[in-house]
Write a structure and sequence with these properties.
Elements lengths: L1 E4 L4 E7 L18 H28 L2 H27 L14 H29 L6 H23 L6 H30 L4 H28 L9 H11 L3 E11 L5 E9 L5 H16 L3 E7 H16 L1
Helix pairs in contact: 1-2, 1-4, 2-3, 2-5, 2-6, 3-6, 4-5, 5-6
């Protein structure tokens, strides 16, 4: 706890860092990273990205837009896995004088670029699908079926690999959701191949490619919205500032008021907060500030908080109480 006092504003400036392996000399905010999580995510990325390239080539050679769309969906999976791996890798880097929170926000920037790329990809797939409705394109059902089944097996393997990691971690869990979504893309490609093989009805390929594109757009929109929200320093989803202030006053003895509350996220799952508190007369400053940080940590998942005590108002209240008692 640091006590900073100037001639005009005597504020108690209290930091809570709540991160494992905190190095005060380097002021590191890097989270503890599991080597097992990093390894399984990297394996999943290599499998997904490798087959994605093969699927693009197979889709181009067989003339299947559904396969190319499924490859686009696998691109979302590969990007999610790469972002998770990058979060683990960069999360270990210590902060420095120019980057006081290290490189954690690189994940958010990469997510924004990924989302914009996916919007462009979906626009191309939908445009191509409409063109194929107007001029049907022959699709080779046999090669399409083989590649789609292999894609299903690869996605299932990646899911099993990821399940060996920490499923409670936000990045691992998010990657698993992406892979489950891509399983649907593989099923759609298989359905298109079977339909073409049995009936020769070519429009099923662009129809299913549009459906897969809609799945990609849903993921891309969620990623874009969450990335922009973090970059705009919006509050985490579980925090309403007014309710948080009232909750702190109700839970912490000796806390009279909370003001100038700011809560935002450095990256996904890493919320931080700054706030000013006003003490009740006779309250213990250290005990109250520690209790405030404990509530933020336990009830809102905010492991890093900066608490300032507004000494002027606390001293004024004490003076008023003493004056009333003397009269």
């Amino acid at each position: 706890m640091h006590d900073h006092r100037s001639g005009e504003g005597h504020h108690h400036h209290d930091h809570d860092h709540g991160h494992a392996g905190h190095d005060h000399a380097g002021h590191s905010h890097a989270p503890t990273v599991s080597a097992g999580n990093e390894r399984v995510v990297l394996i999943g990325f290599l499998l997904t990205a490798g087959f994605m390239v093969a699927e693009v080539v197979a889709g181009w050679l067989s003339g299947s837009l559904a396969l190319i769309a499924d490859a686009g969906h696998m691109l979302t999976d590969a990007a999610a896995l790469l972002l998770a791996w990058a979060a683990f890798r960069f999360g270990r880097r210590a902060s420095d004088g120019r980057r006081t929170f290290g490189y954690m926000r690189a994940e958010v920037l990469a997510g924004l670029v990924n989302a914009l790329t996916l919007f462009a990809l979906c626009a191309w797939i939908i445009f191509e699908a409409i063109a194929r409705f107007m001029a049907p394109h022959e699709v080779l059902a046999g090669p399409m079926m083989i590649v789609a089944v292999l894609g299903l097996l690869v996605n299932f393997t990646v899911f099993l690999v990821l399940s060996r990691g920490d499923k409670g971690h936000v990045n691992v869990r998010g990657a698993m959701v992406h892979v489950l979504g891509d399983l649907l893309g593989s099923v759609a490609a298989i359905a298109a191949a079977v339909t073409i093989w049995l009936t020769g009805w070519m429009p099923i390929d662009p129809i299913l490619s549009i459906l897969v594109s809609l799945l990609i757009l849903r993921s891309a929109w969620t990623l874009l919205r969450s990335s922009l929200h973090i970059l705009m320093e919006g509050t985490p989803g579980n925090v309403v500032v007014a309710d948080l202030s009232q909750d702190l006053v109700g839970r912490v003895p000796g806390l009279q008021a909370v003001q100038h509350v700011h809560v935002w996220s450095i990256t996904s799952g890493k919320p931080v907060a700054t706030l000013e508190i006003v003490l009740a007369p006779g309250a213990n400053p250290k005990r109250v500030s520690q209790s405030v940080k404990q509530v933020l940590r336990d009830q809102y998942g905010i492991a890093h908080s900066t608490v300032e005590i507004v000494w002027e108002e606390a001293m004024l209240d004490c003076a008023l109480v003493e004056t009333s008692a003397s009269t």
